[in-house]
Design brief:
This protein is mostly helical and 70 residues long. It has helices at 2-14, 17-35, 41-48, 57-69.
């Protein structure tokens, strides 16, 4: 039951405007990288990993996850 409490505490952190725009940006970049010949999702994550050094952990995980999934 403790994990449910963690999940409920994480919802307000994830549902912010900054996270939403990072998600949209990650999907857009992921689509462009996926359309380029010779580029893979893993390579895209590796290329954009240095941008996440100045983000919070939640922001960087959402950005890189949406980039990878797109």
């Amino acid at each position: 039951m403790a994990s449910l409490g963690y999940l409920l505490n994480a919802i307000p952190q994830v549902l912010t405007a900054k996270i939403f725009f990072l998600m949209v940006g990650g999907v857009g970049i992921g689509l462009v990288i996926g359309a380029l010949p010779g580029m893979s999702a893993t390579m895209g994550v590796a290329l954009f990993l240095p941008l996440t050094y100045w983000m919070t952990p939640a922001e960087s995980l959402v950005f890189l996850g949406s980039l990878y999934m797109a």
